[in-house]
Design goal:
The chain is built from 17 helices and 19 strands.
Length: 503
Amino acid sequence: MLLARLAETSARVAATSSRRAKTALLAAAVRELAPHEVPAGVALLAGEPRQRQTGVGWAAARDVDAPPAAGPALTVADLDRALDELGALAGPGSQRARRDRLGALLAAATAPEQVFIRALLAGGVRQGALRGLLTDAVAEAAAVPVDAVRRALMLRGDLGEVAVTALRDGAAGLSALGLRVGTPLLPMLASPAAGAAEAVDGMAAAAVEWKLDGVRVQVHRDGGEVAVFTRSLDDVTGRVPEIVRAARALPAGSAVLDGEAILLRPDGRPERFQATGARVARRGEGPELALMLFDVLHADGADLLDLPGAARNAELVRLVPEDMRMPRRDAAGPEDVAAMLADALAHGHEGVVVKDAAAPYAAGRRGAAWRKVKPVHTLDLVVLAAEWGSGRRTGLLSNLHLGARDPASGGYVMLGKTFKGLTDATLRWQTAELLAREASRDRYVVHVRPELVVEIAFDGVQTSRRYPGGVALRFARVVRYRPDKSPAEADTIDAVRALHAAG
C-alpha cells in the first residue's frame, strides 16, 4: 500500500468527530493492507510505530527540512524500513547520519506524507485513532466481534499480531490466542477518583493499596528464564538484575506478576521518580531497586486474569513474601481509604489505589474497577508562548509554554509545556486570546505578552536541565484559565522550588 493512503486516512479521521465514521475510515484502510503490511500499517494508523525508539525527537522531526516529492511513491513497508534504519543508528556521527536519513525520507515523501511522518515521529498524530479506536477498526475490517479482538489484545499486547490473526483466521483464530509467558500484556490501569467516598462508591467489597511513584513492571518467569517489561512493554530485563534474582527466588515454576520497581532511601522513603527512572534506563551497576508486587496474572500453568481480585490476591500472598508485596488492607468504607491514604503519604508515597475485590484483571483498560486517589497540586502560571497544533488541532494554538513569576528579576521562568486538559472550546478561545497578545513568532511557536494566567494541575516537580529554573512540572494539565488573576498574582519560581525541595 502507498503511504499516501495512510496519510490521507489519518487526515480524514482527524477531520471528523464521529467515532463511527473514524472507525469506518480506519477499517477500510486496514482491509486494503497486504498481509505482510498489517503489523506496520496498523501501528502507523494508531500513531505508534512498531519501532519504540527511532532516535528522532520532536525537534528533529520539526527542523529537518526537505522539498516534498512531486508524487506518491513511498509504501508502508518503505516507511517501516526507514524507521528501523533510524533506530539502528548508533555511535559517533549517528546524530548527523540520522538527520541525513530523515532528510532523505522526507524528500521521498509528498507534502501530505511529510505532515504525517513528522507528526508520527513527534508523537503528534492526534486524530483520535488511538489503540481503542484501532481495535474497533480491526474488528470491523475482519468482521469479528470487537470483544474477541479486545480479549486477544489483552493477552498478547500487540495489536499488529492480533490484526493479522483476525484478518487471516477470524474469530476462531482469536479465541485460540492465550496468555503467553514471556510476552507482555498491556497493564490494567486505574481511573482517578476525587476522594475516598467516590473511590469505593458502587463496590460491594474493596481493598486499598499504596500507590508508588515508581516504574510499572511486569515480571515473567518460566523456570529459570525471567523477563521484565515496563508499562510501555519495553524489555528491561538486562538492566534490572536484582528483579530477575527476586523473581527466580519465588516458589513458582512459571508466573506473570504485576508491580512497581522503585528506589528507596535507607529510611524506606522513596527517591524522586527521576532517580528510579534513570536507574531502570541505565545498564550496569547502580543502586538496587525494590520490587513491590500487587497482582498475579498467571501461576504454574494457570491463567488467573478472569479470577476476582480477591482470589488473585490470595495467590499473590501464597507466592510472594510480605516484604515484596504492596501494602494492602480491606476497605469497608471511605474511612479505611482515608486511613490508608494518610499512611501512604506519611511514608512519602503519592497516594492509594482502591480495587474492586470482585473484578477480573482487565489488561489495557482504564475502568472503574481500580480507582486512584492522590492529592492534587495546582499552580497559577503565566502563558509565555504556544505552539501550533496538528491533526484535529491544526490551525489552533495548542501546546502552552508555562512560566512562574520571578520576583528577583521581575520576569518569568519557564517550567514546561502542556497541551493536556484543553477542550475544543478552550482551544478556540485561547487561540484568539493569544494571537491578540502576540509579541513574535517563528515557524511553530507564537510568543505572547505574559498576560494570561492559567491554573495548572501536576503530579510533582522534578529536576530539569532543559529549563532555566532547574525544575519542571510532571504531568502538567490545564484546569482552567484565571481571568480573575493578574500575572502579578501568579505563583513564584521560589514556591515551585520549595515544592521540589519538600518532595
